[in-house]
């Protein structure tokens, strides 16, 4: 469903006893941190509760990596999230898209 409070598509789910909020921001990539920060406030989530899924040009197509914290490594969407949350402590799932 569209959640106008955070300008995103949101879905609530439960898996293995955990309550999940799946969020797809509807803003430009370099502003999506505003949606993530709004959702974090609405659903009472801290940066450590957030799993950020994003593309990675430096990984081969289809390869995935997970890491905790760190810099944005030039990704404007990740930088937007770090800036809006005032923290880089979120877990990131990097999905390789390869270079053209």
UniProtKB/TrEMBL annotation:
It comes from Manacus vitellinus. It holds the Pfam family Pept_tRNA_hydro. Gene3D superfamilies: Peptidyl-tRNA hydrolase. Signal peptide: none annotated. Keywords: Hydrolase, RNA-binding, tRNA-binding. One of its GO terms (molecular function) is tRNA binding. This is Putative peptidyl-tRNA hydrolase.
């Amino acid at each position: 469903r569209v959640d106008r409070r955070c300008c995103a598509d949101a879905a609530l789910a439960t898996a293995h006893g955990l309550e999940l909020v799946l969020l797809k921001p509807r803003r430009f990539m370099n502003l999506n941190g505003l949606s993530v920060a709004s959702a974090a406030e609405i659903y009472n989530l801290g940066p450590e509760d957030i799993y950020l899924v994003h593309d990675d040009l430096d990984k081969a197509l289809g390869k995935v990596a997970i890491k905790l914290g760190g810099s944005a490594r030039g990704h404007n969407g990740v930088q937007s999230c770090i800036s809006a949350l005032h923290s880089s402590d979120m877990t990131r799932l990097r999905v390789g898209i390869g270079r053209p």
